[in-house]
Amino acid sequence: MPTLPSLTGPSSIGEKVVQTVLVVDDEPTARSALAARLKRLGYRVIEAVDGKSGLEALRRERPDLTILDWMMPEIDGPSFCEQVRQDPELLTSQILMMTSHDQPAQIAEGLARGADDFLSKAASKYEITARVQAGMRAASLIRRLEDVTEEIRRKQEILKRELQSAARYVESLLPSPGTLLPGVQMAHAYRPSLGLGGDLFNIVPWGDRVLGLYLLDASGHGVSAALRSASLATFLRRENLLRHVGSTDPGAILTEANKQFPLTEDGNYFTIIFAKIDSRTRTLSYATAGHNGAFLQRSSGEFCWMTQPNLPLGFDGSTIYATTDVMITSGDRLYLLSDGLYEAPNSNGELWGQNRLEETIHRFGIHSLAEVVSGAIAEAIRWQGHEQFPDDVALMGVEVMDTDV
Prior knowledge:
Blueprint: E1 12-13, E2 16-17, E3 20-24, H1 28-40, E4 44-48, H2 51-61, E5 65-69, H3 77-85, E6 94-99, H4 104-112, E7 117-120, H5 125-172, E8 178-181, E9 184-191, E10 199-205, E11 210-218, H6 222-235, H7 238-244, H8 250-260, E12 270-278, E13 283-289, E14 294-297, E15 303-305, E16 324-327, E17 333-337, H9 339-342, H10 353-364, H11 369-384, E18 393-400
Parallel strand pairs: 3-4, 3-5, 5-6, 6-7
Antiparallel strand pairs: 1-2, 8-9, 9-18, 10-11, 11-12, 12-13, 13-16, 14-15, 14-17, 17-18
């Protein structure tokens, strides 16, 4: 049966918002009497003659409060409530159920099936007013919460798009994979944890046969960490290093960076490895500041982790960082990585670990460097069971090729 139209006019008068009540009752006299009382209280009233038309009116009008009779043909009050609570678009609707049988068992059943409150058909005008006002207060709070939730969701979408845009910019700063020097090639992968990460890596071209490269990790995540990383990356550009350091020595570079980037007021800092490859002498020189994510895989298959016991940048301005030199040969591969890779947890909280990382890289054997890098990332993802890493993940691989240098 059709919903009876309301004759109360618009739902707002000037700046005053008129709240709406939907009355669903198959008894015309009782329905009309309650509607008239509600109108005198200043509410806009919509009337429905049964449960089916009541559901249609609820979906169409979205009233602040629905007053519902228990006993109706086809769809009774409790069944009406159940359908409302099963509908994602209606489940927050406030429902006040009317009954002439206000027994505890009946009230318990009605509440269990989705009613918010009860109103006896024999209730006084004072009780009707009080219960309707209580229902309206609850409806107002729910509407306000829904508005706030929607605003938060909207702002989160805007922030997400901005972070994704910033992340694309950060990735545009990363070096292009391929040949870096005659006989030296690189492949890399970058997976920021929150759309914008604090890990960053790049190369510093010193000349035709000499190359600098680094991987840094800013403590924390998100915009602040990314901005601090970009600031340090700017300092590590060739022209800045020549001006402030005057040397290509990795230890001297980190010693100066340590002075330039002290701890922030919030206690944030950097860990970093800076390396230099000289393809003329086949020498790898490196220095680290609190960073343990680097190893050399020899052509023989041996793994040599490049760790040095020292502080991250910024803890002590007087720290001097030392350079270590090692010889490299054709087939050797250098890997610089963030700890987010081997610290990826599975569903039980167990970390993937450096040993599994080594096993994965060893298993790839003679595969290309690009396949090893992408394969290591894929194995870590399989370990944790999902694509999103809890920490930033960066992996850069550099291979010394068999060529005349």
